[in-house]
């Protein structure tokens, strides 16, 4: 049985924000092998943590960690609390570190320029990290966004998905009209819903 305990937080800071999705699952058995404490990881690839941080007013960083070796990941962002159709975009998460010897973890990330109207996949996003002239936060540091993080195993097969944010059920079910659809919407339809805390 899989158990997930999550806390996904976003805290507005002077120059940005930070959000964490931290969860734990029963990951699988390990066996004995030289060099790997407890043996190599043999469980399924599961998302262990995800983070959204505004590095500065013009840059957002998406990070995801998995138990097991992931080949890549995706993050789909949608402004679910704003008037429809909601703007949305999707970006890949690239592997930046992993435990190749024992297979215990993979760290993935993607840094994007923010506030770019004609956004480019894996380079920039329409969604902003800065504040309005009145000091109100925009997207990544406001209670308007919902995010779906997906992980793919070492063979490239879909492995795990979590959604958190303002309206995870609507994002998962596709019930709020959006400008851009995610790749493989059936994967998002199978996501676990996590809790977002501010």
Describe the structure.
Strands 10-9-8-5-6-7-4-3-2-1-11 form an eleven-stranded mixed sheet. The radius of gyration is 17 Å and the shape is globular. With 198 residues, it is mainly beta. The chain contains two helices and eleven strands. The chain has one domain.
In short:
The chain is mostly beta strands and 198 residues long.
Main attributes?
single chain, 198 residues, mainly beta, disordered N terminus
Oligomer: single chain
Largest β sheet strand count, sense and barrel closure: 11 strands, mixed
Spans of 5+ residues with little confidence (pLDDT < 50)?
A: 1-19, 21-27
User: In terms of structural class, how would the helical and strand content be classed?
Assistant: mainly beta
Distance between the termini: 29 Å
Mean pLDDT: 82
Number of strands: 11
Taken in chain order, the helices and strands follow as: EEEEEEEEEHHEE
* Shape descriptor: globular
How would you summarize the topology of this molecule?
Elements: E1 7-12, E2 17-22, E3 46-56, E4 59-67, E5 70-78, E6 88-98, E7 105-113, E8 146-153, E9 158-165, H1 168-173, H2 185-189, E10 192-193, E11 196-197
């Amino acid at each position: 049985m899989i158990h997930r305990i999550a806390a996904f937080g976003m805290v507005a800071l002077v120059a940005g924000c930070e959000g964490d999705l931290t969860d734990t699952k029963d990951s699988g058995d390990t066996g004995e092998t030289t060099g790997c404490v407890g043996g190599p990881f043999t469980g399924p690839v599961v998302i262990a943590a995800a983070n959204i941080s505004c590095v500065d007013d013009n840059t957002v960083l998406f990070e995801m960690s998995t138990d097991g070796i992931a080949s890549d990941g995706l993050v789909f962002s949608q402004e679910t609390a704003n008037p429809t159709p909601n703007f949305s975009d999707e970006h890949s998460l690239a592997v930046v570190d992993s435990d190749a010897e024992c297979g215990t973890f993979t760290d993935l990330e993607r840094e994007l320029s923010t506030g770019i109207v004609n956004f480019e996949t894996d380079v920039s996003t329409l969604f902003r990290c800065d504040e309005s002239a009145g000091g109100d936060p925009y997207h990544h540091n406001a209670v308007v966004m919902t995010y779906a993080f997906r992980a793919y195993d070492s063979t490239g097969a879909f492995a795990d998905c979590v959604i958190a944010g303002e309206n995870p059920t609507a994002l998962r079910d596709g019930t709020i009209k959006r400008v851009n659809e995610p790749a493989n919407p059936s994967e998002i339809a199978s996501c676990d819903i996590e809790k977002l805390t501010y």
